[in-house]
């Protein structure tokens, strides 16, 4: 699907990133339109998660430019905190505060970063917990929840900031198989509602059903950037054909 349908929201141009001698991102050009769902797939070590983390500057880049809504990424201070509120991130490891309740986890950044009053933040949190199917769990602590429930709390926390976009870095990879679908259901709902999403995942069913585009990476480069129908139906590169032949057998 062409990004012409979607006005640009996230733009990476000539992005390079090294970890020591390892060139993990090589001349990355990628545009994600407003309301678009882009799923990033590829073999382990291909640079997928690093790409995702550069978009809200959890990883600084060596060269190139990244713009969000036309503005270059801030490097520090209040601008960086604002960026991370507007470009939310959901990690594979949940990253919830163990000593705070579910409600407190979702409300905290609203108060600290968005400047909302506690009552307003809690009301927003409760609405979002209801949306992800966890309204009855607000007084529990993360350790009292399943992995799938914790990940849904993490999604609610990111949504509470009213982000322009959400980044998902392998959000289901730490979950038991029976919990994966409850998280993917929430993500499918967000996609249908028009949330801009960049999703690093091995869930090919989600990529087929919910992505506008599939970006296939290998060796730090974008090898293919196509619609799900085209990519899964007739991958152009030998690397993608090899990857799909292995992953779709399982």
TrEMBL record:
PROSITE patterns per UniProt: ABC_TRANSPORTER_1, ABC_TRANSPORTER_2
InterPro entries xref list: AAA+_ATPase, ABC_ATPase_HisP-typ, ABC_transporter-like_ATP-bd, ABC_transporter-like_CS, MetN_ABC_transporter-like, P-loop_NTPase
Pfam families: ABC_tran (PF00005)
Record's GO cellular component terms: plasma membrane
Subcellular location: Cell membrane
Record-level Gene Ontology MF annotations: ATP binding; ATP hydrolysis activity; ATPase-coupled polar amino acid-transporter activity
Assigned EC number: 7.4.2.1
Class in the EC hierarchy, top level: translocase
Family affiliation: Belongs to the ABC transporter superfamily.
Name of the protein in its database record: ABC-type polar-amino-acid transporter
Organism per entry: Kitasatospora indigofera
């Amino acid at each position: 699907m062409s990004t012409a349908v979607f006005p640009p929201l996230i733009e990476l141009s000539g992005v390079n990133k090294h970890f020591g001698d390892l060139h993990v991102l090589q001349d990355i050009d990628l545009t994600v339109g407003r309301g678009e769902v882009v799923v990033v797939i590829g073999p382990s070590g291909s640079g997928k998660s690093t790409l995702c983390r550069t978009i809200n500057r959890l990883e600084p880049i060596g060269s190139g430019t990244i713009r969000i809504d036309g503005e270059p990424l801030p490097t520090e201070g209040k601008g960086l905190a604002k960026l991370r509120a507007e470009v939310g991130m959901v990690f594979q490891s949940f990253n919830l505060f163990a000593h705070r309740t579910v409600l407190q986890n979702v409300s905290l950044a609203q108060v600290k970063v968005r400047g909302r009053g506690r009552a307003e933040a809690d009301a927003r949190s409760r609405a979002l917990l209801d949306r992800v199917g966890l309204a009855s769990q607000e007084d529990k602590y993360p350790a009292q929840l399943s992995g799938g429930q914790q990940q849904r709390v993490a999604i609610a926390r990111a949504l509470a900031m009213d982000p322009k976009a959400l980044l998902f870095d392998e959000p289901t990879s730490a979950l038991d198989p029976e919990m994966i679908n409850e998280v993917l259901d929430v993500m499918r709902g967000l996609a249908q509602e028009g949330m801009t999403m960049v999703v690093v995942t091995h869930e090919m069913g989600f990529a087929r059903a919910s992505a506008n585009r599939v970006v296939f990476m290998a060796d730090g480069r974008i090898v293919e950037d196509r619609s799900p129908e085209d990519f899964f139906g007739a991958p152009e590169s030998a690397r993608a054909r090899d990857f799909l032949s292995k992953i779709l057998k399982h």
